[in-house]
Design brief:
- It is built from 15 helices and 16 strands.
- The chain is an alpha/beta fold.
- It has three domains: about 100 residues, NAD(P)-binding Rossmann-like Domain (Rossmann fold, 3-Layer(aba) Sandwich), CATH 3.40.50.720; about 60 residues; about 200 residues, ATP-grasp fold, B domain (D-amino Acid Aminotransferase, Chain A, domain 1, 2-Layer Sandwich).
- A seven-stranded mixed β-sheet has the order 14-13-10-11-12-15-16. A five-stranded parallel β-sheet has the order 3-2-1-4-5, with helices on both faces. A four-stranded antiparallel β-sheet has the order 6-9-7-8, with helices on one face.
- A hairpin with a 4-residue loop joins strand 13 and strand 14.
- Helix 1 packs across helix 10.
- The longest helix has 17 residues.
């Protein structure tokens, strides 16, 4: 079998899923990550080796140390963009899972919204303000949400109006030119649906799984903390439509929000790489990392991979869920909150056959509890009731 090289981002949860997927099938998986990142993927028993890169500027040089012929996976946007200028040389050396050469276009939020509209998918009203004056000129009778266009210390900011959003941005020492502003689609986290897809290069076939978020790390605007596989044909069809409209081969993970007022799904964003929660598909026999590997190494095996099975199991990132509950502690008293923990589930990190990443993640969790203390304060508020 060909080896795989996995370029991992800050948290390592995404890369851990790829390493476990391949390693359990006997594929040597080598992890490359920034020296400063807090990795857990490299702690996996299925990690064949770990190579640190000093920073993004040295990432390409680090990769050239690997023997040609490996399958290369990238699990985050900053690495995709850093490697984009080297796409041609990487293509000669590796089998590329992601569209590295097209990273700038595929990660461009403006292009994503335009392509979604062209594909006939509803899109929230959006603005790309270039100054404080342009932000102040935004008018809407709905709440507003700002999302960063690049790396930022925040996932999203919400406010009742443009003035409130400007204050929140200044609090983050960010400028309007660094964000896209949209009308917020009302509804809770459970109204957010996702599509995990792989559009094969070796044959005319697309693999798509639909799921939904139940809770996010930040209520209303965060990354998945608890999710569930659900069968939503419309989400799968919209995801296929976007992949075709974007002319994207390989991985494309989409996000939509269902507006309970009009029953329409609104396009939120896509990622041209595996989603943070890609292991949500495993219990439904949907494995993005393995599908991509077969596409590049064994198209005949790819042809034998069946579509995802019917399943409504859960996916849980414990650290992410605790962050959510720290912000809305009253939910800890609701029986429905704990239903995913009692049901059929896939853990983001915990695995009986690979405990080292879980032990390492407990250290990260303990450091957060000590440093942030929001969870302790939330428990205190509950105890005072």
């Amino acid at each position: 079998m060909r080896p795989a090289v996995v370029c991992a981002g800050d948290s390592g949860v995404n890369a851990l899923a790829t390493v476990r997927s391949l390693g359990r099938r006997g594929v040597p998986a080598h992890v490359v990550a920034l020296h400063s990142s807090g990795q857990i993927a490299s702690a996996s028993r299925y990690c064949a080796s770990f190579t640190p890169a000093r920073d993004l500027s040295t990432l390409h040089e680090t990769l050239t140390a690997f023997e040609p012929g490996a399958v290369l996976y990238i699990d985050n946007d900053p690495m995709l963009k850093a490697l984009a200028p080297h796409a041609e040389s990487l293509q000669q050396r590796f089998a590329l899972v992601e569209e590295i050469g097209d990273a700038e276009r595929l990660t461009d939020k403006n292009a994503q919204l335009r392509i979604a509209r062209q594909a006939g998918i509803a899109v929230p009203r959006s603005w790309f303000p270039r100054s404080w004056d342009e932000l102040a000129a935004v008018r809407s009778d709905k709440r507003l949400i700002a999302k960063p266009l690049g790396r930022a210390e925040f996932k999203a900011l919400m406010a009742q109006d443009a003035a409130g959003l400007a204050a929140a941005l200044r609090g983050q020492i960010a400028s309007p030119a660094e964000v896209v502003v949209q009308e917020f689609i009302e509804g809770d986290d459970a109204q957010i649906y996702v599509g995990l897809s792989y559009r094969a290069r070796s044959r005319s076939r697309s693999f798509v799984l639909s799921a939904r978020k139940i809770r996010q790390t930040q209520p209303g605007a965060g990354v998945m903390a608890v999710g569930q596989v659900v069968d939503v044909p419309q989400v799968r069809e919209m995801t296929r439509r976007l992949a075709t409209a974007a002319n994207a081969r390989g991985v494309l993970c989409t996000e939509f929000k269902l507006d309970p007022r009009d029953g329409r799904y609104y396009f939120i964003e896509w990622n041209p790489r595996p989603a943070y929660f890609q292991s949500i598909g495993w219990r439904a026999q949907f494995d993005l990392a393995w599908i991509a590997y077969c596409d590049h190494t064994d198209p005949e095996r790819l042809a034998r991979i069946e579509s995802a099975s019917a399943s409504e199991h859960y996916w849980i990132n414990l650290h992410g869920d605790l962050r959510h509950l720290a912000k809305v502690p009253a939910r800890a008293l609701e029986p429905a909150t704990w239903r995913p923990y009692l049901g059929r589930k896939e853990w983001a990190v915990f695995a009986l056959d690979d405990l080292a990443p879980w032990r390492k993640s407990l250290g990260v969790l303990a450091a957060w509890l000590f440093r942030d203390r929001s969870f302790g304060r939330a428990l205190g508020r509950l105890a005072a009731r």
